[in-house]
């Protein structure tokens, strides 16, 4: 009789334990799923493509820039820019870019000033806000050639004012307080396509690199101007250039 009671007690206890375990939240061995990213590709309402007919020569050679099958190719020589025919104030821009040479350097100028474009000489750059386009190999190249540490720039999407343009950078900032450094290192290497989404509105510029916001600045003056593509010593390609004008 005692053995029977003991067995019954053990069965009840085991059943209760199983019930408790099944009631507890299960801990999965699988890693948590990453939160979805909001990638803006310029296909929504209001976006317009930017083609060769939307830009004009400034201080590059005729063969520096060429457009074929939706891809913009730049030889990198000489240093200079092409600019949009239209002046923009508030807008969104998407662009894909890839460097064709390690250590390549280029950029997208936002709110390029008209005064700085006038009579711009060969191998000069205008004033405005530069959204940096830079290959990772540039860091090693710079340190080898100068013997100095590359602590004043990054290769992952710096945003900074050029010339007389002024801007208060979003943190983290460069040691001199001029450049907005990216909060994450998301740029891909040479020969790989990168995606930029730039939002320029009310004196503020923000940059998303490959789907995540990383850098920018506010209090920018002037806050209207041309859009410019930069040639700066290395072959680079752009594609998917699209713009949406905002109120």
Shape: globular
Biggest sheet features: 9 strands, antiparallel
Distance between the termini: 88 Å
- Overall strand count: 15
Protein described:
There is one protein chain. This protein has three helices and 15 strands. With 247 residues, it is mostly beta strands. It has one domain: Jelly Rolls, CATH 2.60.120. The strands form two sheets. Strands 1, 3, 4, 6, 10, 11, 12, 13 and 15 form a nine-stranded antiparallel sheet that branches. It has a six-stranded antiparallel sheet with strand order 2-5-14-7-8-9. A hairpin with a 2-residue loop joins strand 11 and strand 12.
Strand and helix layout:
Elements: H1 2-23, E1 48-49, E2 55-57, E3 65-68, E4 71-74, E5 80-88, E6 91-99, E7 105-112, H2 114-117, E8 128-134, H3 137-146, E9 159-162, E10 166-169, E11 194-201, E12 204-209, E13 212-221, E14 225-231, E15 236-245
Antiparallel strand pairs: 1-15, 2-5, 3-4, 4-15, 5-14, 6-11, 6-15, 7-8, 7-14, 8-9, 10-13, 11-12, 12-13
């Amino acid at each position: 009789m005692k053995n029977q009671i003991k067995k019954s007690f053990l069965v009840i206890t085991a059943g209760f334990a199983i019930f408790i375990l099944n009631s507890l939240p299960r801990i999965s061995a699988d890693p948590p799923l990453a939160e979805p990213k909001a990638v803006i590709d310029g296909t929504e309402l209001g976006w317009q493509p930017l083609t060769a007919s939307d830009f004009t020569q400034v201080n590059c050679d005729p063969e520096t820039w060429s457009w074929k099958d939706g891809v913009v190719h730049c030889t990198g020589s000489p240093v200079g820019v092409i600019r949009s025919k239209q002046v923009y104030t508030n807008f969104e821009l998407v662009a894909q870019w890839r460097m064709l040479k390690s250590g390549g350097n280029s950029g997208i100028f936002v709110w390029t000033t008209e005064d700085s474009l006038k009579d711009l000489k060969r191998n000069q750059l205008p004033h405005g806000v530069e959204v940096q386009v830079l290959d990772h190999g540039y860091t090693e190249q710079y340190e080898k050639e100068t013997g100095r540490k590359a602590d004043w720039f990054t290769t992952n999407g710096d945003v900074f004012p050029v010339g007389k343009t002024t801007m208060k950078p979003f943190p983290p900032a460069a040691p001199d307080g001029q450049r907005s450094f990216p909060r994450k290192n998301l740029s891909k290497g040479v020969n790989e396509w990168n995606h930029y989404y730039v939002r320029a509105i009310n004196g503020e510029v923000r940059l998303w690199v490959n789907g995540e916001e990383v850098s920018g600045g506010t209090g920018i003056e002037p806050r209207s101007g041309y859009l410019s593509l930069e040639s700066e010593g290395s072959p680079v390609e752009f594609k998917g250039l699209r713009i949406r004008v905002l109120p």
